Amino acid sequence: MTKTVYVLNGPNLNLLGTREPQVYGSQTLADVEQLCTEACARHGFTLVFRQSNHEGALVDWIHEAGRLHAAGQLAGLVLNAAAYTHTSVALLDAVKGTGVPLVELHISNVHAREAFRHHSYLSGVARAVMCGFGVQGYALAIDGLAQW
User: Fold this and answer.
1) Catalytic residue among 6, 69, 84, 106
2) According to its UniProt record, which residues of this chain constitute the active site (predicted)?
3) In whole angstroms, what is the distance from residue 13 CA to residue 36 CA?
4) Model pTM?
């Protein structure tokens, strides 16, 4: 049975490539999706790749991933919640409620940035936290999922 990897992206990640390229690089979200597609193909995973600026959509997609997890069909969830990392109890509760295996991902090293970015509601329920590898972190996270 082929397992699925969900890669979910939060607010403003649709602006990759043009938003603060000195922090996030010049690759676009489409480039990130291609990296994820290639990483999933290496491991025989199916990819679900999505982005939303709306917290509720991310919660709904985590619930969707949770149903696959309950059915034994989910390899894991890679979540770049962006600013919601630091504010969203709703995303925390969705992950806790579904039990999805989570990799929390950040393109930049959030600990080398503003103090408010140092706190994450998600880290405590994540199996792994990745930051600072740029967009290559997405492929590394998928490679990590293949090891679980």
Assistant:
1) 106
2) 24 (proton acceptor), 106 (proton donor)
3) 15
4) 0.93
Active site residue 24: yes
Catalytic (active site) residue 106:
yes
Q: Which residues pair with 9 in a beta bridge?
A: 51, 80
Q: At what angle do helices 29-43 and 136-145 cross, to 10 degrees?
A: 30
Q: Which helix (H) or strand (E) holds 75?
A: strand 74-80
CB atoms < 10 A from the CB of 15, how many? Answer: 13
Residue ranges of the annotated binding site are 80, 86, 93, 107-108, 117
pLDDT at 27: 85
**Token representation of residue 128:** 């792994």
SS3 of 34-64: the string is: HHHHHHHHHHCCEEEEEECCCHHHHHHHHHH
Q: Can you give the pLDDT at residue 17? A: 86
98 exposure class (CB count in 10 Å sphere: 0-12, 13-18, 19+): buried
Residue 114 has pLDDT above 90, yes or no: no
Q: Does the pLDDT value for residue 19 go beyond 90?
A: no
> What is the per-residue pLDDT for 108?
81
* pLDDT of 115 strictly over 80: no
